[in-house]
Structures are given as C-alpha cells and as structure tokens.
Design goal:
With 752 residues, the chain is α+β, with helices and mostly antiparallel strands. The chain has twelve helices and 43 strands. Strand 32, helix 9 (560-577) and strand 33 (581-584) form a beta-alpha-beta unit.
Length: 752
Amino acid sequence: MKKIGRKVLCMLVAVVMAFLRITPVHGIDGPTDAADTAADEVNDTGVDTSAVENDRMRLTVDMGNGTFSLLDKENGKTWHSVPENPNADKISIGIMRTNVRSHILMEYINREDENTDQLTQTTNSYIQCESEETIQVTKQSDAYRVEYTFQELGIRIPLVYTLKEDCLQVSIDVAGIDEGNENRIVSIALLPYFGAADQTVNGYLFIPDGCGAVAEFNRNIIPLKAYEKMIYGSDLAHSAERQTSKEMDIRLPVFGTVQDNGAGLMGVITEGDGAASIHAETGSAKVNYNYIYSKMIRRIYSIEKSLYVTNKKNDISTITYTDFGTDHYTVCYYPLSGEDASYSGMAAVYRDFLAETYSMQPNKVEHTLSLKVYGALEEQKNFLGIHYYKKQALTRFDELQNILKDLQKNGVDDLSIQLLGWTGNGVYNRKISTDCKPLRVLGGKQSFAQLSDYIREQGFALYPDVDLLTYTKGGNRISVTSDSAKAPNGDNARQYAYSIVTQEKRNTIDPWYLLRPQKISSVFSGFLRQAQKTGVTDISFSGIGSMLYSDFKKSDGTYRVESLSIIQKSLDQAEKQQGRIAVSGGNAYTLPYVDRVFEAPAFSSGYDIFSYDVPFYQMVLQGYASYTLPPVIQSGEQKTMLLKAAETGSDLLYACIAGDSYRLRETRLSTMYSAGYDLWKSPAIDAYASLKELYVRTGSSVIVHHERLAEELYRTTYDNGVQVLVNYSANSTEYAGQKIDGESFVMSKAAE
C-alpha cells in the first residue's frame, strides 16, 4: 500500500468533518489553563494542529512538523517559530533559504573524516527532517515533544515545548539525543528564526554583549561575519587566545527582539547557559531577516595538521573533538507588550526571574567612591644568574589608611575598598594560598587590624580580595601536574599576558595555570576556615566572578556547566558563613550571592551591527547589589566615566597604589598608568562631589526605564520618579524645556 501524504490526509479529514458538520468540543466552561485546554484542530489550510492556552498566551502546534505560533493575548501579536511566508524572500540564497524554515540549525563533525580543512559541516531540520517527513510530534499533558530525525546522519534531536504561566519554555532533551557511529553534534542552534522580522518591520535586537547593546533593524550593515559569542566568555582551558581591550564578555544569558507595533520577545537561558552562545544578524542587502537566537555548544573541536605533505592537495589532518555540553538546555521565551516591549522591560523580567529563582531580596545599595588597591606584588629578581622572587610593597596598610583619611578630609565620606595582594603571594598568585595572614611587607597583622578598625569605625567597607583560581607555580598542596585544568590536547591549560599595544605575548611574565574545578570546593572551604579564625568577614573573590572554564582531563574532566554549579555552591557557602561578598565582573550565576560587583561591564564591544550601548546589566542589578564601573586608568577617561556613572547608577572605581605608577612597568600591572594616588586624587574628589546628590536621591531605587533621546543624549528613570539626563556631546542641548550643558548631566523629578 502506498503511503498517503500527511497534508493530503489532513485535507480529506477536514472535508469529511465539514460535510458532517462536526465541531470539536473544547470544554463547557471555556479555557482556563494550559493543562486542560488542549484542543486538536484542523485549520483552514487543512493542517492538523493542537493548541494550549492560558490567560496570557495561546500556543498552537502543527502536529505534523512541529511548527508553532505563540499568540500574546495582551496585544494580539502572534510570534511564529519560522517566518510566515519564506517564499517571499528575494534576498536569501543557498542554504539560507532553508535555514529560515528550520527549528534547528546543526553543526556536526564526521569523526572518520581526518583529511579535510573544513572542520564542521552544517545542515538544518528543514532539509534533513521536514522534507523527509521524519519529524514526530506527540502531545504530553501540557507539553509537546518534537523529535527531529536526521536519518542520513544517524542523529535524532528531541525538543519539548511547554506553555508556562508567563513564558514558552523550550528545552532540548539532551539525554534523549541519539548519535550515529560516524557523526557527532558540535552545536545546536535552537529556534533561530523564532520572532524573526523581515525588512518591512522596524525595531531592534537586544544583544547582551558587555553592559548590553541595541542593534536596530535594517541598517544595511554587512559585517565580515554575523555576531556570535560564548556566554561568560571563551573557555579558558580550551583557548589562550589574546583578548583586545575593547572586547567584552556576555555576562547575562538573555537576548531579545522588539518590533514597532509594541511587541517584544525575550529569551532567557535557564539551563545550560554555561554551554551556550548568542547569535545575531540584522537585515541588509545580503540578509532578509533581523533575528537573534541561542546556540547550545555540545562539543568543541580542533585540527592539527601534519608536518608532512602526503599528496599534492592535502596534508594529513587530525581532528580532535571533546565533549563540552550539558545535561539540560532550556530557553524560556517571554512575550512583552506595551511599554514592557523594550530592553527596559526585558531587564525587569530578568530581574524578577533572578529574584524568584534564587529568593533574592532587594538590598540597601550603598553608593560610594570605590578603590581597587594593590598591596604587594611579587617580582622576579636575578642575582648572579639565579632567579628568585621578592615581594614589593605597592601600598602598605598604614599608607592606605592615610589615603582614606586624606579623602575623608576632602569631603569623601563613603568609601568601598577592594584590597588586592594583602596576603599569600601578593596581587598575582605564584602559589594558591588559603592563608589569611596579612603580609609583613605591608605591615603585618597589627597594621592590618588597625586599618580594619579604622574602616569599620568610619562606616566604610573593606573587601580583602583573594584569587583562588590562578597560579604560576605549584605549592601549598597544589600541584601543577595533577591540580591544574587540562586543555583538550592533554597539556596544562595556560594563560598568557599580552602587550596591549602589540598584542604580542609578553615572554618576561610567567604564564599562569587554572585550578581544576574539582578542587575549587576544597580550596574555598580551606580559605573560609582560615578567614573565620582570623576574623576576616567581608571578602572579595576576584577571579571567580568572571572566569568560567572546563577541565578536559581524559579520565575525570569537568565541563563549564559543572564548573558553574561548583562556583555557585562555593559562593553559597561563603555567603552563609561570612559577611558581605563581592566579586569582579559579575557573571549571572554569581549575582544571587553577592552584595557588590566590582568592575561591572559599562560598555559593549562596539561591533558594527550595534547601534548604541544600553545599561541593561545595571538595570538588572540596581536595587539588589552595589556595583562599580571598570577602574579609571587614564586621566582622559575621567569625564566619560563620570557621565557613565550618572547614566548607569554606578560607583566610580579608581585603581590605586600609594607610590609612583612608574614602579609598575614590566609587570602585569603595567597598564595601570594613573594608579598613583597623587595622579587621581583631585579628579576623584571632584567626581564624587558631582555624583553625591545623585547617589542620595536614587539610593536603592530600581531603574525602571532607560532610553536614547538623541544620538548622545540618554535618560534614566528610577522607580522613585527621579530622572537623570546625560549629555555626552560637547555641545549643550535642550530636552523638554530643560537645558543640559555639554558633557554633563542633570536630575529632575518625573512628571506626575
């Protein structure tokens, strides 16, 4: 018997039902929630569909191919999993014409193919599955399971759609993935064109690069390649590639799109964010759609070429791939409407998500002038050809106390201090130490106690900092051989210092290693025990807030998603045992446990598809924790950083040593041009005075709205009604009858 096509069969059923005047029954009292309002239907085109709904949304799924639509009942907007009319696309060519019809874009690698320069191959679910009718859709209570069988490749990928109260939850059932003998999945792009807009639509993409950036639709920017970046930065155990000073990491696992009809769609990666990247593209002469999506990284790969030429065409190449992924990968898509359809609305959604998921409570935000103080630095010396290390005091404890007194005398009455290099080996670890003994070269235990007492009496905050992740030499029961994270090739993963000017490796500075994630818990616990014994309460963990990496040891490796969980458990322990906790950088998984984030991202990476930066990160955090800008390093940055602090509600941060910055040449601190106290004292005092009233008026209020009023004019609105207008232009301007001088800001109360 010949197989009857699905669509033909559905059309026959529709005709019969119409003829018999049979109407499907959906329930006597009408829909109430997603669990009991499933309806099987045959729509006007003869397609067999099923639908679930709640008060906010209605999800309709094609039971043949898994294509779905999500109706936002608040504004009537329907979000489609793939563009409605892909045949109208006159721009896309090649595989792009089928990509837009796909729910999955897949990179894979053939492990048997070792003689190729092309490491991975790409395909999509339309070509491999829908066209071959190998998609199976089943209804499971209030969820839909859609299995995509890439028959030619021997790969099956199941997705699960679940309608929640305020979002559509889409999961890759990682445990249910099947792979054949030859092909291995490298990455899975999930719903790449869900919510995509063609070039007839106005709007923008929100990209969480650095502090956040807006990419307006249809600017006809044709970059060398589309935007794509790993969340939480690259895996440091896989790559020691240098990073330019302007490159910013993604610190929050969120993305979204806003369209001109008051509709928005926001994605939050709730599981598997440690193994994910964000991809975005805007409409241009080569791309018909504006779209953004997340990608699950399942494996990483590398290729090593032989030194010997085997034939005239190719060298022998060996492909190495290493598992990287996660047991779970879930994205929640939130429809937004009205005023909430904006990046401000997205920030509010994500802030609420963090608060609900981790029981975060609003916190009293203490706005201060913040100092990043460098204590001791261990330097390599040479005597008669023998290398040795000697600790050099950059800022003694008594010198720091004098600096604080001087600032206080000049009107600075709120200070937070992150103190680096106060114990162990100094600022940068030669050896990982769980010791909490203040260094003698800085004044020792008694001088540190005097400093701590003074800071406590004045109501300031002191965060002694430790780095429990990096080191240059084994010791203190930590072995480079057995306790450092491994790269995929089995070598110790190394990080190098690079010249900010030439981008060349600095051979005069020792590379450093990464502590195996499996050792983090024990090292953390050891440090916390010592901290309690010595009376150290408030603590800053610098590396742990910005570094996430794997350990590719063959026998018992640890992937990034596992490292993330280990870090969270360690921070949870610290929060329960200690006082206030601070981190540097502030990746999302650390935020529920911290009171302060030093060096929160203040800028994006400035890619050409970005239209302008937005303080999304700050909008999420304000009212729950304090945060600072990156340190003011050069005097030329003073004005810009002052304005950025006003726009984002951030504290200013100054890198500080007691002596001359010249002492830092040829060290890993060589870029701290203006760290000497005498160089930044006056501008810091002036900046604090300029911001003091703003800090008082905003306090712990939440930023509820931010908008770009003109090219260099921005407005930030707090929930207590305070508005801040910031003019980055050198020329004065006027808005709503209010004059704003060039390179300045003003505050006002929002109109009732």
